[in-house]
Specification:
The chain has 237 residues and is α+β, with helices and mostly antiparallel strands. It has a single domain, classed as Bira Bifunctional Protein, Domain 2 (BirA Bifunctional Protein, domain 2), CATH 3.30.930.10. The protein contains seven helices and ten strands. Helix 3 crosses helix 7.
């Protein structure tokens, strides 16, 4: 539909934070429809594009603890990795669909994955604030996936000369202990209150790699079905 087929669906392995973000940058410069599902080989945090580094995130101490830190190509707040499933979506700008429609479609795909697991997931499409967020899972943001009042996934965007790059992260399990114990108490407390892992919501021990395979299998059909809804709604206005 609308020039987006065929999708190239990629199942990536667990690699370093720097490898994963460099690969997204590389793919985003090629105007072909791709989606990539991947995990992380070491616990890591990714900062949004040009996001200031918080004082507590000392690079030397972080690396000494076997943790990684990287800047994402997309915006948004800090995301935590190592127990999540990440997704990158590359859409050619030549398709000329509204960017908000693309973001909603990606977000609703994550909602459907949660609903398949019996989780009452829903999309939050408006942020309710104009200020930049510091932590992805702890603050209201547009294009988030919620389970009740707690966030399980978020998406961010960047425009390239010929493509849109959408990056998302869904928390599948609680944070790796090695990462969690390095967080300040205030950050850890807010995370516990405002975020939820898919495993906790589903009351089941879920594996990111298995969820990646399921999402990959359904990606094209879910994307097309949601675009039908979006385009129909646009025509009705």
């Amino acid at each position: 539909m609308d020039g987006l087929h065929p999708w190239r669906v990629m199942l990536g392995g667990a690699h370093s934070a720097f490898h994963q973000m460099a690969l997204d940058e590389q793919l985003a410069r090629d105007p072909a429809p791709r989606v990539r599902f991947f995990t992380w080989s070491a616990p890591a945090v990714s900062l949004g594009w040009k996001q200031p580094v918080p004082a507590w995130l000392d690079g030397d101490a972080w690396r000494a603890a076997g943790l990684e830190r990287v800047e994402r190509p997309t915006g948004g707040g800090m995301a935590f990795h190592g127990s999540d499933l990440s997704v990158s979506v590359i859409v050619p700008r030549s398709v000329r669909l509204p960017v908000a429609m693309l973001m909603r479609t990606a977000c609703e795909s994550a909602v459907r994955l949660g609903q398949e697991l019996g989780v009452g997931a829903a999309a939050r499409l408006e942020s309710g604030t104009e200020s930049r967020i510091d932590y992805c899972l702890m603050e209201p943001s547009a294009y988030a996936v919620m389970v009740g009042a707690r966030k399980v996934a978020g998406f961010a965007l960047r425009r390239y000369p010929d493509t849109w790059l959408i990056q998302g992260s869904m928390l599948v399990r609680p944070l790796p202990l090695r990462l969690a114990c390095r967080l300040p108490d205030t950050v850890a407390g807010r995370l516990a209150a405002r975020a939820v892992s898919l495993s906790e919501a589903a009351k089941s021990h879920l594996a990111p790699a298995a969820l990646a395979e399921r999402w990959a299998q359904c990606w094209s059909s879910w994307w097309e079905a949601q675009l039908v809804v979006e385009l129909s709604a646009a025509d009705a206005v």
